[in-house]
Design goal:
The complex is a heterodimer of chains A (95) and B (368).
Chain A: E1 8-11, E2 17-21, E3 25-30, E4 35-40, H1 41-49, H2 56-66, H3 71-87, E5 91-94
Antiparallel strand pairs in A: 1-5, 2-3, 3-4
Helix pairs in contact in A: 2-3
Chain B: E1 9-16, E2 19-26, H1 27-36, E3 50-55, E4 58-61, E5 64-67, H2 74-89, E6 93-103, E7 106-111, H3 118-127, E8 131-134, E9 137-141, E10 146-147, E11 154-156, H4 165-173, E12 177-178, E13 181-184, H5 186-189, E14 200-208, E15 212-223, H6 224-235, E16 240-248, E17 251-258, H7 265-272, E18 279-285, E19 295-298, H8 301-310, H9 320-324, H10 329-339, E20 344-349, H11 353-364
Parallel strand pairs in B: 2-3, 7-14, 14-20
Antiparallel strand pairs in B: 1-2, 3-4, 4-5, 6-7, 6-8, 6-9, 10-14, 11-13, 12-13, 15-17, 15-18, 16-17, 19-20
Helix pairs in contact in B: 1-2, 3-11, 8-10
The chains are: A alpha+beta (95), B alpha+beta (368).
């Protein structure tokens, strides 16, 4: 699924996954693949904001305000990160 | 060993971290355990599901029997089985191999394998006014993330020059010995006001690391009477080298390493199963020598959790903790890391005891 500014990304939480926030990083354990993904820095922040209630555009606005980055760069970096999180099975795009 | 030779049978009941455990057998088996764990003694448990006994044919437990080993004293066979049953029965706590001291309601873990100075350092900090929770076991509640006191008697190597004085004096007159360590009731030595029963939040974890060995060593502990025979077996294995033999009270620990390029695992495993081997420990670093400078460097919570998990005492397959995780060790490590969410973690290169304690106090003064 193509991710656009109007997409609603949401963390996937279920029996096959476990996430734990350590404060400085998030550990996301994929039981099926037997892998632990480590999300730190901006990836941790983005993952936390993917709660299904905000669009990609709204999240990008937040990041623009929070970090010293222009809106276009924030949006393209955000979409790339969410695509990666989707590939890893950590985030889904709500229909 | 003939049961008829043993003295009168004794029974003791414990409640340890929620586990009700009863032991019975001759006094020589029961007394050291009862002394070490006397803070946990209770009246007859409501349901004694777990038990360990010295029976007609050796150690018997509610989960299986272990035939007596000829020539090996009954207490030396009994105590490890008691520990195994204890570890296997604890499911709500990660039983980390670490000493714990507390100040202002915040707990500091000192984690290391055996022989790397946990007890000595914890006693030094207790001498400096820290509350002693435990010198060896740090039970962290998997649901609460707090560490609970484990008021077991402290084990002290007799004659060790580094042991702080009041504890060394108590060890010199102690009549209870387990695995080469004299058992001392810390509450009888330290100011009783420094002992506590309430759990505490983990604020700092210190991983004590000795100098790395060029090649890992396997340390086999056996009764002194058996050490020479075991050394002869080991000496006959091509590619093995006996690095040293260390006295541990009534036991000797034979430290061995394989010569570069040698693959002696199978033969070594056979020897490690020799009935005279009471326990074996793999070592990657040297024991604490308490000299030179000391240093603390920060380390991530994730790395810390991985290292603590390696030294987790109750992670054996079939134990209650691993049952809770369906045998999934990775899931356990992820949860363990989460319990450290508020902790600062450090790697410590120990030096002289006083300097090492100074460094730890300095680092522990930094808030989470």
């Amino acid at each position: 699924m193509k991710i656009s500014p109007s997409s609603y990304p949401k963390k996937i939480e279920g029996q096959d996954s476990k996430t734990r926030d350590l404060g400085d990083e998030i550990l996301a354990y994929d039981r099926v693949r037997g892998k632990v993904h480590v999300l730190n820095g901006t990836a941790r922040r983005i993952y936390t904001l993917c709660d299904g209630s905000q669009t990609v555009g709204e999240i990008a606005d937040q990041l623009t305000r929070q970090y010293d980055v222009d809106a276009d760069t924030a949006l393209s970096d955000l979409i790339a990160t969410i695509e990666r999180l989707v590939q890893l099975g950590l985030v889904e795009i709500l229909p | 060993m003939e049961r008829a030779r043993l003295p009168v049978e004794v029974k003791t009941h414990f409640k340890i971290l929620g586990l009700e455990l009863s032991i019975s057998g001759p006094a020589e088996c029961i007394d050291p355990v009862s002394f070490a764990y006397r803070a946990f003694v209770c009246d007859r448990p409501s349901r004694a599901a777990a038990w360990v006994a010295w029976g007609d044919d050796g150690v018997e437990t509610d989960r299986g029997n272990f035939p007596a080993v000829a020539g090996l004293a009954a207490p030396v066979q009994f105590y490890p089985r008691f520990l195994d049953r204890l570890y296997d029965g604890i499911g709500d706590f990660a039983l980390i191999h670490a000493a714990v001291v507390v100040r202002a309601g915040e707990a500091v873990l000192l984690a290391a394998p055996s022989g790397h100075g946990k007890s000595t350092l914890a006693l030094e900090l207790a001498r400096r006014g820290w509350t002693l929770f435990s010198d060896d076991f740090a039970p962290i509640g998997m649901d609460t993330g707090t560490v609970f006191p484990f008021p077991r008697a402290v084990g002290i190597v007799p004659g060790s020059p580094a042991t702080p004085r009041p504890f060394a004096e108590a060890a010199a007159i102690s009549t209870h010995e387990v695995f080469g360590k004299r058992l001392v009731d810390a509450s009888a030595v330290a100011d009783t006001a420094t002992l506590s029963t309430a759990p505490a939040r983990v604020s700092h974890v210190f991983l004590l690391e000795g100098d790395l060995l060029p090649t890992p060593r396997l340390e086999l502990s056996c009764p002194r009477s058996e050490a020479q025979r075991l050394e002869q077996r080991l000496a006959a294995v091509r590619g093995l080298r006996i690095a040293e033999r260390i006295s541990q009270g009534s036991l000797d620990a034979i430290s061995i390493e394989s010569e570069q390029g040698s693959h002696v695992t199978e033969e070594l495993n056979r020897i490690a199963l020799d009935p005279a081997v009471v326990f074996s420990v793999k070592r990657w670093s040297r024991r604490a020598t308490w000299d030179g400078g000391a240093a603390c460097t920060p380390v991530s919570r994730r790395e810390t959790a991985q290292q603590l998990a390696r030294e987790l005492l109750n992670r054996r397959p079939g134990g209650r903790l691993m049952d809770r995780y369906g045998g999934d060790t990775v899931s356990l490590v992820v949860d363990l890391a989460a319990t450290l969410r508020s902790a600062r973690c450090w790697r410590v290169e120990p030096g002289a005891l006083g300097l090492t304690a100074d460094k730890i106090e300095e680092a522990a003064a930094v808030g989470p």
